[in-house]
Amino acid sequence: MTKKRVFSGIQPTGTIHLGNYLGAVKNWVDSQERYENIFCVVNSHAITIKQDPKQLAQKTYELAAMLLACGIDTKKSSLFIQSQIDEHAALAWILDCNIPMGDMSRMTQFKDKSAKNPKNINVGLFNYPALMAADILLYQVDGVPVGEDQKQHLELTRDVAMRFNRDYGECFKIPEALIPKVGARVMGLDNPESKMSKSSSGANHAIFLLDTPEVIMTKFKKATTDSHNTIVFDTTRPGLYNLLSIYEIFTHKSRESIEEEFVGKGYGHLKTAIAEVVIESLRPIRETYKKLMNDQAYIKQILDEGAQKVRPIATSTYNKAKELVGLI
Ligand code: TYM
Prior knowledge:
Catalyzes the attachment of tryptophan to tRNA(Trp). By secondary structure, the chain is mainly alpha-helical. It has helices spanning 18-30, 43-46, 53-70, 87-96, 101-105, 108-116, 123-137, 151-168, 213-221, 238-251, 255-261, 267-293, 296-325, and strands at 5-10, 36-41, 77-81, 143-145, 176-178.
């Protein structure tokens, strides 16, 4: 039986945090055996926000090294950089011409990002979901493992693919969003009402994968909770719920056994326990990352091989789309 194929991407816009890891990357790693995997560092998406060109190139290699350190195994998965394959941008144009303004205008991420960057609301930021749809549709995938914040973009991808197939003829496979049951929306430690994000400025907002053990401990200790005195999974207590969900994923324990473990104990005890398990889980990632970053030639080789492997799929889909719309 042939394996189902998945594609996912991540932007090289800063060190990855626990939200990226639990919502996406950890799931990519854990299901590598089950699927045929294509993972991509989406650097062309990153330039929708102003970037320092030299730093962007460096951050792109750093993120690739981080994904390998997290456990992406190139024997099972192809890893490459979006800008290595021109068909991403080329297909995005064809899709752009087939997405109604109204559909694109509804994207909440555009609204959030333009509110955060009022001085640089560019056309690329608006068209961002068309490029994301192209990333996915080029590879004829069954699934797209992402966090919950990408759900709306996935719906737009499915819509444009179905419309295209109907209007021009069969071209794209219709992909499903693969969103984890736990970890799909990790919240900020300082403000559990807002999603953990790379761009938030709060010092205790996010745990970054390269944070030192001391920093991780301090951030968890300062995490916002509430004034109750029971430790239970309760979605109406977002700070506590967020912490317990993080603990659940890293320990693989059941919710019942976690609640039992903390009967009669206070938040201080819980926060230390979570910090310890996160520190130990991230330690090997941090160590492997440092080793990999000493050999950037190796990273470059892996990315070149990844691009070489998947390029024929992208070229074949793009050529078909081009022909169907009458571009010669
Ligand atoms: P990006 O780079 O913002 O995030 C990468 C992945 O991390 C997930 N994520 C989270 N999950 C849980 N809790 C959080 N707080 C959290 N923050 C981020 C995201 O859902 C994502 O899965 N548009 C995408 C990149 C992209 C892409 C694609 C993804 C471009 N093309 C094609 C899939 C397929 C993005 O900005 O992800």
